[in-house]
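Continued from yesterday's entry.
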Amino acid sequence: MDPIKFVEEQTLIKPDFPDFRPGDHIAVTYRIIEGDKERSQVFKGDVIQINGSGGTKTFTIRKMSNGVGVERIFPFSSPILSDIKVLKRGKVRRAKLFYLRDLVGKKARIKERRR
């Protein structure tokens, strides 16, 4: 058996997550385990890319924290992810929004998509 197909079968994407695209503003709730304690933390930001396919599919979220850009990469199949909520749908014309890294203030805003 092909090892790549085996890994893809083992790491399935959780079906209860909503569909989102680059440009959407989402809130990801994930579990943090510190020693014997466990807590949940929320990371809110804009999706700047969705990468890969199958079990290795990941998405990158970017937010501004005290004037510093913070990016975090989450695998779709990660067991630490507990919830994803789409807060706003963004209207963009690219799949990878790396140009947002160079923009500051109002220029870094993403227009909202009409339904």
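--- second protein ---
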Amino acid sequence: MNSEPTRNLALELVRVTEAAALAAGRLMGRGDKVAADRAAVEAMRVVLNSIQMNAIIVIGEGEKDQAPMLFNGERVGTGQGVEMDIAVDPIDGTRPLANGTSNAIATVALAPRGTMFNPGPFLYMHKIAVGPEARGCIHIEASVEENLRAVAKAKGKAIEDLTLVILDRPRHAELIAEVRRLGARIRLLADGDVAGALMTCWPDSGIDILYGIGGTPEGVIAACALRAMGGEIQGKLYARSEDEVRRGREMGYDFEKILTMDDLVASDDVFFAATGITNGEFLQGVKYFGNGARTDSLVVRGLTGTVRQIIATHRLEKLSRFSAIKY
């Protein structure tokens, strides 16, 4: 069995995220998160199983939201070829998609078998993410002020010129108040912290830092992308109760451990793809026309650091002749 990828699997993964986006995009604004998730999951599974690889899902879909699943431990691919860990988020931002708002994307990441952090049942983590210019300047246990000053210095900006993305949640009230006290700008996201992390590496997004408590699975997926794009993410598992702390310790998890890039994905040989479902700061959503659609995708290969933006036109009548996916 060949254990080293010899081709750019990200160029095959983009077919996976395109299929998920095309299938789920029809449900934009219809208010049904579960139906949208189901459409994306079913489309992803069909294309994943056509790729020549032997992959096990480490970061699956459905447990947190009780949505249709690409479940943890499921094998995908043809069963031949490279052995990989895979993380999927068929819709990062189900609520924005259901409501017809911005930054819903379909994402998938691959890394060599055994290199991807498995968060188990612990679904939330403290996290901070930055782009290449501020890599090496952040620390998850530093104060908000210390981190903002360090990032501002690295980027040659004043704190007042920095823009942070923070999930719009009651748990972030103190964080938001402190950022406002320091004078930095804030972009509140309803959902979608994979997209938020990616924005820090996208020059035209205007985003400098992702900060706050978000999904652990999303943190692992974002780590794969940021590692390849030259950014950085750090985290610490976040327990919602004393019972979670107790269960975590019994399972060998350490809620005090700082999770670095190497902890989240311990290889440079990573692949990542994302396709916009609704319009966002760095990817456009699916655009339907006549008998076709256009997608906007990001494709990243870790070994080379190559980042591609792929705009594709899909002829749905032709696709429907041989595809099991309902577009």
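The first strand starts at residue 54 and ends at 59. The chain has ten helices and 13 strands. Will compare against the first tomorrow.
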